[in-house]
Amino acid sequence: MSTAEFRRWVCDACGYIYNEAEGDPDSGLAPGTRYEDIPEDWQCPLCGLSKGDLRLLPEVAAAPAVRRPSAGKTGKASKCKGGDDYVVIVGAGIAGWSIAEAIRAHDQETPLLLISACEGISYPKPAISTAIAHGKGADDLAELDAESHAAQLGLEVRTETRVLKIDTNKRRLTTAKGGIQYGKLILALGAQQRELPLQGDAADSVLRVNDLMTYRKMRQRLDQGVKHVTILGAGLIGTEFAEDLSAGGYQVTVIDPTGHPLASLLPDSVAEQLQQQLQDKGVQWLFGNTLDSLEHDGDHLRATVSSGMAIETDLVISAAGLLPNTALAEKAGIAVNNGIATDSLMHTSVEDVYAIGDCASVEGKVFAYIEPIRRQAATIAADLQGRTEPFDSRPPLVRVKTPSFPLTVCPPDHPDEVSRVTHDGQPGRLDYYEGERLVGFVLSGEMAGTGANLYRSL
Ligand code: FE
Question: What is the pLDDT of residue 294?
Fold first, then answer.
């Protein structure tokens, strides 16, 4: 087989891509290792699903140099000002790069410009919450800089360029570095951690970690003699961070107003097991509490929670839930409903403007997980080519990366309509039924690696 025939496989649960050309050297798979030659006990390095759960990705044609006058600037962080024929993507997270890739899979001609407020580095975001245990720093997670990625895909990129305003009548973006014209606009603005109201002279020191840049900041702070970390929020990110930091030797306290970790995702019986497993690893849970104030106290911080209890800590990380970034769209008169409102074709309320990923709310629902992003990208790419492939808003497949108690969850879409929850005779498996129809499941412990096939059968 020639190198041209190397294939790529995706882990739908976490977005990891197994590229045969690159292999997975960390797991002992040399570059060039074919999918068929991967041992059966290999696991997704990001989330632990099994080989059989990977899905073959459609081929992306190798991007030729863009056949345009601006070709010389392709790949460089250019001063490209767009044009009426341009598809302009705002945002360089997984959603931004995924839509660029989906468009280029079928269309090498349309000029594409990707604009990023940050450096635009590509990295596997789910790996952020297990990096310490894997001995990886922030820089080890970076896969590709914006210029190289853009060159691969045959598009133009403008990094560290913040979009300040969208004029949907003139199809024009205002940035701090000049105006940009678009024909079609795709908003991939992402989300940010919710900011919690907080008193005290150290309230500003709370870190909200949701991307590589803020993660790098967190690791820098951890290296400055931190012994105890307080995490606000026992959702997916907070719980994964708790185990990872604990594995890295830090003392960890998690504060959450609910009664269990992942309370919105797990039934109590399973959440209690997760809670116990992490507690056995040394994680301290403060449920039924919120953080009221954070104050400097000598070399440390003093965190006072709503019950009145005070703890000494060195670093507070907020993982209190994601809020879609909608301000830019809202200011432009684009309809917002939780996220930037779209129909099932990812159209916003304004013609030729799309939204994708964590910033988008598809028919009222925000899909803040990795798996749906690629499907949303396929929907937009098809629409741009005049094909109609509506986004199927089925419940997501969520992989909880807590090695001491791994979980694979497909939360039922309408929890109120679940008529039956059954163990199916197997420990580590819970099935949700609406009537006779399987509508969701929770797999835990050793069962957790087997979720993707069950998911496809829903
Ligand atoms: Fe994975």
Answer: 98
Ligand 1 being an ion, which residues bring their Cβ within 5 A of it? 11, 13-14, 16, 44, 46-47, 49
Secondary structure, 3-state, 160-188: CCCEEEEECCCCEEEECCEEEECCEEEEC
Query: How many whole angstroms from 402 Cα to the centroid of ligand 1?
Result: 13
Residue with tokens 């990208």: 377
CATH topology classification for 406-457: Enolase-like; domain 1 (3.30.390)
* Fold exhibited by the domain 3-57: Rubrerythrin, domain 2 (2.20.28)
Largest pairwise CA distance in the chain:
66
What local confidence, expressed as pLDDT, does residue 235 receive?
A: 95
d(Cα 173, Cα 66) in Å, to the nearest integer?
A: 23
According to DSSP, the β-strands at 228-232 and 315-318 are parallel
**What is the C-alpha separation between 312 and 291, in angstroms, rounded?**
13
Distance (Å, whole) CA 3 – CA 34: 11
What is the rounded CA–CA span in Å between residue 339 and residue 358? Answer: 8
pLDDT lower than 70: segments of the chain: 1-4, 58-78, 424-425
**CA 157/CA 151 separation, integer angstroms:** 9
CA 46 to ligand 1 centroid distance, Å: 5
Cβ–Cβ under 8 Å, residues 308 and 293:
no
State residue 420's pLDDT score: 83
Q: What separation in Å is there between the alpha carbon of 55 and the centre of ligand 1?
A: 11
Determine whether 142 is exposed, middle or buried from the number of CB atoms within 10 Å of its CB (0-12, 13-18, 19+).
middle
- In the chain, what are the domain boundaries? 3-57, 77-192+323-384, 195-320, 406-457
- What is the Å distance from ligand 1's center to 54 Cα? 8
**pLDDT for 313:** 98
User: 């294939």: which residue's tokens?
Assistant: 7
